[in-house]
């Protein structure tokens, strides 16, 4: 209503997991508002967030293939029934059993085509990009080897499911990007959801830093040690490097925030919680939320 096209919108996130959440929210909104009415709506472009496995239609096809290999796989039967909006525990009809038995003897490509045809997956216009991506993956997998469904499923787990969905940028495309990859990008409208990232290094990831032991006599002469970063360093001979790492991490977070906030040429929307769900004063300091609320 304000003259912007979908391509004028850029959504920025800190990491891939947030990107996946945003993409799923957008897909759910698209299904509810556009697809249910037979309208096209918008596309989503991202280099990080939309791996093929994130699609319910890809999950369904893989479930059917796994059931073709093992009809008694109750987990995959639940996935199968959920996609078809049946009771999760509903048993297969004789016709379904016959179909699964038949495709178990087919090549991955033949089985894929049979599944798409039987369940009319090509009619799901909002999932065509995922179907095309799966088709391309099967073509690439079968081109240089003779394979069966079991070999394809093994390849899917090791590599195929991590392939990134390819979408072209058009006027109907919204882009999702991590802030790190947004340098140089500019859009009329920028939205930053989940704007509550930490400013301190994540000790849970156990980052290793090289640190010198201070005031430890002969030990200090050895030089640097690989030390797992964490709060225990505060009261150790490596305290100095702990605080240096902490300060540099804060600086990096602020710089990242600056990059995100300067991508918009017209309108900027930041979704910031009113307060953090933490009782720790340290956790509150090590987050950009207090910085933003004070600035507001």
Describe the structure.
- This protein is of the alpha/beta class.
- Strands 2-3-1-4-7 form a 5-stranded parallel beta sheet, with helices on one face.
- It has helices at 16-33, 56-69, 74-83, 94-103, 108-118, 128-143, 149-158, 218-222, 239-261, 281-285, 288-295, and strands spanning 9-13, 43-46, 173-178, 187-192, 208-212, 224-228, 264-270.
- It is built from 11 helices and 7 strands.
Average pLDDT across residues?
84
Major beta sheet summary: 5 strands, parallel
- Count of helical regions: 11
Q: What would you call the shape? A: globular
Specify the helix fraction band.
40-55%
Number of beta-strand segments: 7
Structural class, from secondary structure content? alpha/beta
Distance between the termini: 28 Å
Give the radius of gyration. Answer: 25 Å
Fold blueprint:
Layout: E1 9-13, H1 16-33, E2 43-46, H2 56-69, H3 74-83, H4 94-103, H5 108-118, H6 128-143, H7 149-158, E3 173-178, E4 187-192, E5 208-212, H8 218-222, E6 224-228, H9 239-261, E7 264-270, H10 281-285, H11 288-295
Parallel strand pairs: 1-3, 1-4, 2-3, 4-7
Antiparallel strand pairs: 5-6
Helix pairs in contact: 2-3, 2-4
């Amino acid at each position: 209503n304000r003259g912007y096209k979908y391509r004028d919108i850029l959504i920025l996130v800190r990491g891939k997991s947030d990107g996946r959440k945003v993409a799923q929210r957008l897909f759910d909104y698209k299904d509810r508002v556009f697809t249910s009415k037979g309208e096209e709506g918008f596309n989503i472009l991202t280099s990080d967030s939309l791996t093929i496995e994130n699609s319910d239609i890809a999950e369904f096809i893989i479930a059917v293939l796994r059931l073709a290999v093992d009809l008694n796989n109750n987990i995959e039967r639940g996935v199968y029934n959920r996609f078809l909006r049946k009771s999760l525990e509903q048993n297969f009809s004789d016709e379904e059993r016959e179909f699964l038995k038949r495709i178990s003897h087919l090549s991955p490509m033949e089985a894929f085509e049979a599944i798409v045809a039987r369940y009319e997956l090509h009619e799901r216009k909002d999932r065509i990009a995922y179907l095309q991506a799966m088709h391309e993956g099967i073509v690439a997998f079968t081109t240089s080897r003779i394979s069966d469904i079991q070999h394809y499923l093994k390849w899917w787990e090791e590599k195929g499911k991590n392939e990134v969905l390819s979408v072209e940028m058009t006027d109907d495309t919204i882009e999702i990007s991590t802030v790190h990859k947004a340098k140089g990008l500019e859009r009329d409208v920028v939205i930053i959801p989940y704007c509550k990232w930490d400013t301190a290094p994540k000790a849970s990831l156990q980052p290793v830093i090289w640190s010198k032991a201070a005031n430890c006599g002969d030990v200090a002469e050895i030089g640097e040690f690989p030390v797992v970063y964490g709060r225990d360093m505060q009261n150790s001979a490596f305290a100095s490097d702990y605080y240096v790492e902490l300060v540099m991490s804060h600086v990096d977070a602020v710089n990242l925030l600056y990059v995100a906030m300067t991508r918009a040429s017209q309108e900027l929307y930041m979704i910031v919680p009113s307060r953090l769900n933490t009782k720790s004063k340290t956790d509150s300091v090590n987050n950009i939320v207090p910085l933003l609320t004070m600035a507001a």
